[in-house]
Structure formats: structure tokens, C-alpha cells
């Protein structure tokens, strides 16, 4: 544990003591004159979990360059056809005593290696595809685990195939004259579909991966020490992690209770905190804030005109609009047409093909007509309203880095790396996007007195802070009234104000200034402080007060800070597919 007196900047500095076109052909095995595939891996070490799950691992020796701090990467082979990639980093501080944190990106289908390389991992990748030390890495204060999930995402696979992806639909095609191969890629089964299409199913799969790693990491990392029931566990996530976080944590929490009472075998932990960054938690609450943020944000930016603004609002509220169809989804899951229970989650047993279709149509209605007009008419960034639509911030150099032969060899992977996978459309087609489950899970966790910290960068559009604030006020739990009655207090780190925080006891909502979707990239000092204060139970605003049951942030009822207007420096008009008609021929 780090004392409150250590400044975040000093904390970071104290540790600073010291696609396939970029690949190295020398490191790859040759397949043809133009295609190179990753080499087979023969130097894995193996560990076996008590449930006979095999863990393959290597010490890659890349990314984390702090002397004496190790990392391990490899696969959890859950079954003969389910292989989940992970990368574990020891804490730079005290791996034997520091907590254990799982980081998940969202999507669905966004790999957690995004967070590792662009946000909170030990290194970032520059334009020369060189790993650069990150002094603000979250493993300054915690052991960190990154998992590529669900299977088929990142380096995780059920099968491997040589072929290429349709860049729009993300469907995989085996090598052919019509679809020339671009690499060896991870596949899910059935092909282009998979079997995991909801957050709740993903939670179950990730729990098994997590438990297998808990059982085996101490075997190959002696510095970590035994993962005793006193070791604290934290889950932090982002974006669609507004679904993942509450659902995964709730499932993990309840499984942990079964382990503790002896009703099932496993490795118990002390469940400590859940953090969500710019999360989409409940579309029925957050959808209305897409048009509001587009034109009434604190940057003085009017992203589209009044006609588009009126359309998006109308689409949300009209008969058969977004909110109406969300209600149809929830009612159909209960088998009714006229009502539904607001506090009822949608379960797997209720997700018949027909219910999935109703919920999928609702998700399409909301995303296409309430959220998406901004993408077609604003010219501004999805993840940062200050930037143009074709935004290169942060620079995503990590996929090319992961396609370097020497990097793949170090990690122990035999696959090319791509952001393409079937997960996004699988989840979209199930209607998971608009389920109420995740707000309900959040309410349950708050009633169990779990530490929950929400943080939203105030320049992000897709999961904007207007909607995040609305969610924080909408959750119904034991202390809802006290939370709503708390004020906004300045979030200060080393004398600099980075945002505004409302907090009551274990629940907090932070708006972070001058930050897009990925807060740790835009505001690394504030993000590390937010993480550290959450883990070690200091107030989010100052880091100087220990959290108590009735800790209440003082200040005004509204977050009133305004930002400087940022004009667009370029314009962008969405391209539409153009039809190609058969050539005309003369009539005889």
C-alpha cells in the first residue's frame, strides 16, 4: 500500500530508474513469396491448475523494462478448442503484497491490449514501433492482468486459420483467389459467430480463465507469493466495460462467496473495488444524452445543426423509437406485450431467437438514429469531440508492434494480430447492448458495499459524461439519496485540478477535464491517482481522507466547469458505397 503523502508525480518518477508490413522476415516462417506467418512456439513452460486446465507461459522480457520486475504471457487452455491469451505484469512496488487487478477493454470485441499499450500498461508504442517506458503505469501500485476476451479477440482463439477478413463485416474467409490470405488469424466457432454473444456468457468464461491463473501464477512467479483470501481483487474496465464491469464483478463476487462457504472449489480473494471509465451501462438512461452532449457540451461546440438535433431527440422518444423498442425488448423477454418489471434482468433462458431479434432491432434503432447522426453530420471525433472524425489520437501503433516477428516470438503466439473479430456483431445480434442487467448489477454491488468508482473524460462523445452522470444519479441502492445530495468537489493531484467528483461513501462519479474516451492516455497523472485512491480507499477528490461509510463530498450540486472552444481544423464527409451498373450495350 502507498501512503497518501506520496505525490502521484513522485510516485511515477520513482519507478523511472532507468499490420504485417512492419514484420521482420527473419523471425517469420516463409509461406510464399509475399506472405509470412508467425513461427511455431516450442519454448513454452507449462503449469497445470487443480482442475487440469493447462497454462502455457513465457517471460517475454519486453514492454516492462524496470529491473527486477517480470511479466508473463501465454495461454489458458480451457478446453482443447478454447485458448485464451493473457499478459500478467508484476507490481513495480511490492508484488507479494500489492493487490491484483484485472483490466478489460470493451467493444464488445476490443482487446484489453488496447488498454495495456495506449493507456495504463508499463509501456506505450511510438511511431518507430519501439516500446517506451510509461512512468504512470498502473502496475506502479498493483499487479496487473490483461486478458483478450471473449475468445476470438486479440490472440485468443478456438481455431487458427490462414486467410483474410472482410474489413467491414469482420467476417473471416479462408485463403482463396477471391480472398487472398493476409496472415494466420484467431477464429471462433462456429466460424464468424462463436458461442459467446452476451456479457453474462463472457463473464462465465472469463471467471474460469481467472481462476486457472490464480491457481498457477504463483507456481511460475514466486515473487507474487501465495494468493491468499486476504489478497485484494479489483476489476477496472472501460467503454462497453460499463456492461462487462458490473456483470463480471457480480458473477465473480457470487462465485467467490460459494468458494468461501465451501459449496464449490476454487481460490477465494478479498473483493475490493470496481472501476469503470467512460462506460455505457444502461442505454435507456444514457441514450438521451447523445444529442444533448453533441450541442450542449462544456466546450461550446455545436456538433450538428438544429434539424439533426431535433431528429435524434425525436428518434429517442417517438412511438416505436429507441426507448419504446427497449421497453419491447424487456417486455418480450418476460413474455408480455404491455408491461415489464424494471428491476428484472434478462436471462439466457429468456433469450430465444425471437427475443434476440426484438432486442437487436431495439439496439439498431438506438444506435442508428440517436447515437449515429453525430458520426455522419458533425465531422468530429467519436472519442474526442475536440478532434476531427478521422482522429489519430491516441496513435494506435500497437497492432503493428504485435505483428513484429520478434514480439510474437517473445509473447509465444503463432497468430497475426488484428482488431477484426466476430464479437461485435455477435453481441449486437443478441441485443446485449440494451439489456438492463448492468445497472441492476451495479445496484447490487453497491448494496454489498463494494467500492465503485466511475470516471468520465469530458470530451468523449460515444460514452459521454452527461450520460455517465445520469447513470450515477439513476442507480437505486441503499444510499442513493445521500449520494444525490453530495456536491461536486474539485479533484486535485499535486496542486492541479483535474476534474470534479461527487462521492458518498464507497460510490463516486468523477468528470475528468480535457480528456477523451481513454482517460489514462489523456490525463495519466489524474488516472493513476484515481486508480490508487480507489484501490486504497482514499477519497477521489483529494486522496487525503480515508473513505468512511458517510464520507460526503462538499460543493455545488452541478459540475459547472467550462472548457475552451476547439474549432475543427479539417472537415470530413462520410463516404457512401457507390453502385456500379452493368455496361450498356447497343441493341441490334
UniProtKB/TrEMBL annotation:
EC numbers for this chain: 3.4.16.-
Swiss-Prot/TrEMBL GO biological process terms: proteolysis
Entry keyword annotation includes Chloroplast: no
The organism's place on the tree of life at top rank: Eukaryota
Keyword Signal in record: yes
Gene3D superfamilies tied to this protein: alpha/beta hydrolase (3.40.50.1820)
Family matches, as InterPro entries: AB_hydrolase_fold, Peptidase_S10, Ser_caboxypep_ser_AS
Keywords attached to this entry: Carboxypeptidase, Glycoprotein, Hydrolase, Protease, Signal
A GO cellular component entry from the record: fungal-type vacuole
Molecular function terms from GO: serine-type carboxypeptidase activity
Signal peptide region: 1-22
UniProt family annotation: Belongs to the peptidase S10 family.
PANTHER family, sorted: CARBOXYPEPTIDASE, SERINE PROTEASE FAMILY S10 SERINE CARBOXYPEPTIDASE
Name of the featured protein: Carboxypeptidase
Species name: Clathrospora elynae
